[in-house]
Amino acid sequence: MEDHLEDFKEQPEVEEDEEFSEFDKLPFPPPRFRSTHLHIQRSNVCSRAYFVVVMVFFHVYILNVIALLLYVHYNNGPEDLMPGEVASSSAITDGGSPLPGSTAPASADHLDDYSQSFSLPRIEGIRVGHVQRISSISDKTFEMKTLSLKPLIFEIPGFLSEEECRVVVQLAQLKGLMETHTTGPVQGYVESNQLSLSTEEVFGLLDLNQDGLLQKQEIVSHSRSRDGTWLSADSLRQILITLEARPTGTLTLEDFKRIYAESQSTEQRIGKLTSKYKQRNKNTWLYQSSGSHHVLQTLKKRVISLTRLPSALVELSEPLQVIRYEPGDYSDAHYDSSPPNPETFCAHTRLASNASSLKEVSCRYLTVQFYLSSMEDGGETTFPVADNRTYDEEGLVQDGIDLTDTQQTCHRGNLRVKPTVGTALLWYNHLSDGKGWMGELDEYSLRGDCPVKRGLKWVASSWVNVDPDHLQQARYQRLVVQRHQAKSGLDDYYQPLSHNNLHQDL
């Protein structure tokens, strides 16, 4: 039985061999099955290898695209984000207009992410006299010369054409100029003799509920004005620190007398120079929103290109100020911005400011000044302490002469720039905080305008407003977007939004 089974198993093999032998005798024998099977197997191996190579290259390509998008996102800031990202970042279009999006509640994490999505680049000065080439939006090349390193000051000749200067002057004349004749405080300082009240009278005025004790809210309620603050922020902080250290959180008349006397002596020492700021000129403000003259809009775009700052910051900054100086007009040396202070809030972000803030100040990261006319005699822009080795406020008075008094000491300024039509000056009012944001006020940025001796001096100033608190700046821009949504809705999705449009409302 086993022999028969073995014969039966061997039989197919014999038949198969005979069958192949017969096929081999044909004129065109068909390919053997085993050979065909091997051919298909090799083809599959090649196809799989080719597929693996293609997929590897495809994934590498996708990773490169993602890396490129991330690079563009973190280098260009929120103005280049896609509309879908508005909900978390308050995105801004390429033209600088915030895109309305979701009004989801803004958490601290969202604000922090938004604030980190852009920074404040600074132009390197290299050294005094260094010249670098810059390009504008019209691909025109300018030469920018470093005039000072403390503060960083740059001069750009021919930044405006004479025709553009003429148009800005005419627009200012058409708008109408208001006379500015100031002899008073800047940065919130007041002279001690301006408040001709006794300590008892001051205490009685502050004591709103007449209980003989002063609470924090009673003091703060009289200290929220921009120009009429009865004490500087430093002196006011000194009083509040003392008040909060008291177990009862209140001050008696005797406590107030002692603290108020100390604050007044500090006030006289700190405000001795800054309280005497004087100027005489005529000025007006020109808005640069989408409905303004095309020259004004071009000017704003050039500022964005020149400063290399996120367009949102420039869009939401102050309007262009145009000033005319007639013979005899001047402005004493002063700071365009204010030092960061926890007891103050920036004027441009007051929409998002804390209601308990004590005082409103100007926060101007940098200044771009355009000369709209050339001067025959006088009218220079002076930086009294530019590139000084050291700075000391008391050192501004030398031999009884006040260097901030441009009427008397303009010729003694370290740096004086003669106005030439079309030339632009750029200088930074603040240092960097080392993290890509605005830091302390640069004390060397003190500047003034020498008296005009002959001719008319026309200048325009463009300030870029930045809050030293980056979260506050982010919160403000988010609120502006929400306000724009409430006013215009999604129908104006692509309409440019500017601080100029909200100037009166904010």
Structure description:
The protein is α+β, with helices and mostly antiparallel strands and 506 residues long. It folds into four domains: 2-74, no CATH class; 77-118 and 477-495, no CATH class; 131-184 and 278-468, Jelly Rolls; 192-272, Recoverin, domain 1 (Orthogonal Bundle). 37% of the residues lie in helices and 19% in strands. The protein is built from 14 helices and 21 strands. The strands form five sheets. Strands 1, 2, 3, 4, 5, 6, 7, 10, 12, 15, 16, 19 and 21 form a 13-stranded antiparallel β-sheet that branches. Strand 1 and strand 2 form a beta hairpin. Helix 4 (108-115) packs across helix 13 and helix 8 packs antiparallel against helix 9. It is globular and about 100 Å long.
Task: Tell me briefly what this model is.
With 506 residues, this protein is of the alpha+beta class.
Quick check: average pLDDT? 76
Q: For the terminal residues, how far apart are their CA atoms? A: 109 Å
Which fold name corresponds to the CATH topology of the largest domain?
Jelly Rolls
Number of strands: 21
Low-confidence stretches: 12-20, 76-117, 184-195, 224-229, 269-274, 490-497, 499-506
Q: What's the CATH first level of the largest domain?
A: Mainly Beta
